[in-house]
UniProtKB/TrEMBL annotation:
It catalyses: D-mannose 6-phosphate = D-fructose 6-phosphate. The active site is at R192. This is Mannose-6-phosphate isomerase. Signal peptide: none annotated. It comes from the Bacteria. One of its GO terms (molecular function) is mannose-6-phosphate isomerase activity.
Length: 315
């Protein structure tokens, strides 16, 4: 009998982290500077662990390696997606990620990092940095060299429910007062461009990676507009934000009852608000805000009941 796969997250402390992962989701975080919840992850830097069923205690990486049938027998040497929840209590560094080809050649076979953000919550005046104003590599280098950050960086006001697609090569940063669910390629390669002259716990300026960052930055910046597609099923709503090379990401807002078929290689599900119940093959599972799980391949029909909001992604 195929069951959903519930997962325990891994938490990462960051200089810019806070306590909202505990305050909002009641997670047992390691400190008051906890910045990242790696919720659905098989990356070696933080692996989720199965909490139910016959695979209980296994890591997601072990499932990918030993039970590829759960994921539609997808090809590849790694689970392809990584789901995080980020608490930006302070500004993140301004950064950029490489594409697959550059990462393979320059980062020991790592993959690139295209990502996207769903704004769960934010302060009234919150913003993000997404994109830059340099018209050429030469202008990009000059503006960085002369610290013209206000002229170079593009800032956008944000509100809860906003969604942003951030392909590799995009200069970007979350800013303070923001809680985000991030769906990304399963990569941990980041090049810092600017970090507000912050120092680490030892008093040292945090490392920048300007040479690589300049090499991989798309110039001029390409705006990738998001045009959500909204599909109503009875009283529930499925909003598909993006369907692209690496992932499809949707928001499911369940009002009362939603019947679905799992017809993808797998689905990664993060419950960001509400509570309810998942029924699969006559077995029921209680769901609460902050849970993360995978609906495996060939699971077939399932029913969601309650009042819940969830972010769902699949390859």
């Amino acid at each position: 009998m195929i069951q959903p796969i519930f997962l325990t997250p891994v938490f990462q402390e960051r200089i810019w982290g806070g306590t909202r992962l505990k305050d909002i989701f009641n997670y047992d975080i390691p400190s008051s500077t906890t910045g990242e919840c790696w919720a659905i992850s098989a990356h070696p830097n933080g692996q989720s662990t199965v909490t139910n069923g016959k695979y209980k205690g296994s890591t997601l990486c072990e499932l990918w390696n030993d039970h590829r049938e759960l994921f539609g027998r997808m090809e590849g040497d790694r689970f392809p997606l990584l789901t995080k929840v980020l608490d930006a209590n302070d500004n993140l560094s301004v950064q950029v990620h490489p594409d697959d080809q550059y990462a393979k050649e320059c980062e020991n076979g790592e993959i690139g990092k295209t990502e996207c953000w769903y704004i769960i919550d934010c302060e009234d005046d919150a913003e993000i940095i997404l994109g830059h104003n340099a018209r050429s590599k030469e202008e990009l280098v000059s503006m960085i060299k002369h610290n013209k950050w206000n002229e170079l960086l593009t800032r956008k006001k944000i509100k809860p429910g906003d969604f942003f697609y951030v392909p590799s090569g995009s200069i970007h940063a979350l800013c303070n007062g923001t809680l985000v669910l991030e769906t990304q390629q399963s990569s941990d390669t980041t090049y810092r461009v600017y970090d507000y002259d912050r120092r680490d716990h030892n008093g040292n300026l945090r490392e920048l990676h300007l040479e690589k960052a300049i090499e991989v930055t798309t110039t001029p910046h390409r705006i990738r507009k998001v045009d959500p597609i909204i599909h109503k099923i009875n009283t529930s709503t499925i909003t598909t934000f993006v369907e692209e090379q690496y992932f499809t990401v949707s928001k499911w807002h369940v009002y009362s009852r939603l019947e679905m078929i799992q017809d993808k290689p797998f689905m990664s599900v993060s419950l960001i608000d509400g509570k309810g119940k998942l029924t699969v093959n006559h077995d029921s599972y209680l769901l609460n805000k902050g849970q993360h799980f995978i609906l495996p391949n060939n699971m077939g029909a399932f029913v969601l009941e309650g009042n819940m909001q969830m972010i769902v992604s699949h390859p």
